Amino acid sequence: MRTALLIASILAGQITGSWDGDAKAMGQTLAWSLEKCPPRVVVAKFGKDGWTKTTWGPPTNLDHDVLRRTNSIKWPYQIVISYTIPVIVTKNRKNREEAEQDTKPSLVFKLTFKNIYEMGDDGSVRLSETLDLPLSLKDSRSWKERTRLPDACWDHLPKSE
Of the four, 17, 38, 87, 115, which is 20 to 30 A from 1 by CA? Predict the structure, then answer.
């Protein structure tokens, strides 16, 4: 009887450890996929000022953490990835072609983003929240929900290959 209990506890520990290991591996995979995101480039005319090229990203300063959530049976793991998006802008140009060809952009600011993913007990993953730490002159800064950009790689689950 003792032998059976010992074997059962070892197997239970291996199963639990396996899911923890899977969640950690998934966190690493998601962070790695964000590192590979291409920058988001937008060339547009802003009022009477002229044409500019704005480049968001690629993500830098990535950090990830895996948390075990006990309040959810379906989604027991939470993977939190925080990162920085540099925003680089060119000077105003007379036309679109000049803005597209501009090779001397300047760093305007850096955005601090956080993605919260949930990993299911079956290994499935979903992006549950996208947050940013707003730029603020005040001392109080707190994470706020942000709109997902449809053409930004960092706002979606990585595509399967």
Answer: 17
